[in-house]
């Protein structure tokens, strides 16, 4: 049987309805701009304010950078396609996009795990915090996160694009993702990608175990604190992190582990939004909405900008 090898892919589009096309473009543009401003603000604030040069904000700064890269790997291309009414993405472009998404997702899981360890040490072993969470240890945890994400990115992209694509080239997704691409392959054997997914699941599960164990100790310690105000403060810093981790891991697991179906579903797109678009947009809000240090740093920067503006006048 003759097959036509795929040289480019076509991403899902909404141009069959002008209203949906405009809504998609407007919504994705707004989300991207908000995520861009939020994460850039956190990166700048944690760099400029000396009081934010602590392990917690060190990890938060790198989480914001990962979120910025993750959302920049998917939304701009989708927005551009909507504006130009072109839905194609080259074979190489698709491979690079997939690699970057997996790299950022894998690294983000590692950073979230490091953040849970940081909270554990801060709450359960406060007297040894500076010794345990030294700058060297923080950098090591960061490197491990990036290396893990990079290894997963190479495994997934190499495993996926070592398969043969033929016939339909329409990806039912707004970016190149493994589950959507596997539906287009005519290769019978998926051994390489199956191994990659298994390694990815084991990595995510190991991180989840570390996070759960950390929070078991954290909550048991917090509940022993006699002061209600101190309990409330501890819970306010831990529960948002737990919410972020749960949403990120559960939606990612659902997308990659649910049974494959040949019938396109809007649910697939919604799930991918929850692990590739929502976290970069909501993480800054969840972590910084009630954070007094971030608010103080922001008001300080804005005050300096206002004063400089008045002086120039």
UniProtKB/TrEMBL annotation:
Which Pfam family would be a valid example here? 7tm_4
Q: What is its main location?
A: membrane
Cell compartment(s), UniProt: Cell membrane
Record keyword tRNA-binding present: no
Q: Which residues form the G-protein coupled receptors family 1 profile domain?
A: 38-287
**Where are the bilayer-spanning segments?**
26-47, 59-76, 88-115, 136-158, 193-218, 239-257, 269-289
Annotated GO MF terms: G protein-coupled receptor activity; olfactory receptor activity
List GO terms (cellular component aspect).
Answer: plasma membrane
User: What keywords appear on the UniProt entry?
Assistant: Cell membrane, G-protein coupled receptor, Membrane, Olfaction, Receptor, Sensory transduction, Transducer, Transmembrane, Transmembrane helix
Keyword Transmembrane helix belongs to the record: yes
Membrane topology value: Multi-pass membrane protein
- Role: Putative odorant or sperm cell receptor.
| Similarity-based family | Belongs to the G-protein coupled receptor 1 family.
Indicate what this protein is called per its UniProt record.
Olfactory receptor
Q: Which organism is it from?
A: Erinaceus europaeus
């Amino acid at each position: 049987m003759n097959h036509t090898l795929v040289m480019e892919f076509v991403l899902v589009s909404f141009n069959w309805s002008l209203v949906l096309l405009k809504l998609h473009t407007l919504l994705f543009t707004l989300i991207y701009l908000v995520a861009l401003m939020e994460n850039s603000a956190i990166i700048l604030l944690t760099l400029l304010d000396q009081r934010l040069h602590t392990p917690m904000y060190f990890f938060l700064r790198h989480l914001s950078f990962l979120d910025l890269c993750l959302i920049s790997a998917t939304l701009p291309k989708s927005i551009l396609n909507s504006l130009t009414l072109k839905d194609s993405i080259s074979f190489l472009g698709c491979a690079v996009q997939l690699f970057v998404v997996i790299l950022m997702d894998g690294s983000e899981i590692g950073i979230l795990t490091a953040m849970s360890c940081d909270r554990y040490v801060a709450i359960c072993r406060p007297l040894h915090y500076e010794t345990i969470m030294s700058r060297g240890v923080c950098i090591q945890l960061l490197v491990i996160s990036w290396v893990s994400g990079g290894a997963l990115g190479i495994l997934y992209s190499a495993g996926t694009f070592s398969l043969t694509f033929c016939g339909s080239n329409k990806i039912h997704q707004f970016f190149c993702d493994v589950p959507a691409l596997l539906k287009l392959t005519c290769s019978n054997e998926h051994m390489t990608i199956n191994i990659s997914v298994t390694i990815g699941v084991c990595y995510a599960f190991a991180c989840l175990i570390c996070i759960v164990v950390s929070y078991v100790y954290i909550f048991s310690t917090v509940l022993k604190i006699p002061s209600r105000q101190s309990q409330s403060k501890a819970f306010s810093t831990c529960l948002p992190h737990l919410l972020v981790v749960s949403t990120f891991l559960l939606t990612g697991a659902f997308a990659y582990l649910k049974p494959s179906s040949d019938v396109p579903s809007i649910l697939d797109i919604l799930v991918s939004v929850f692990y590739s678009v929502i976290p970069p947009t909501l993480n800054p809000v969840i972590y910084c909405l009630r954070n007094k240090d971030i608010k103080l740093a922001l008001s300080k920067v804005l005050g300096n900008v206002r004063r400089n503006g008045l002086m120039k006048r």
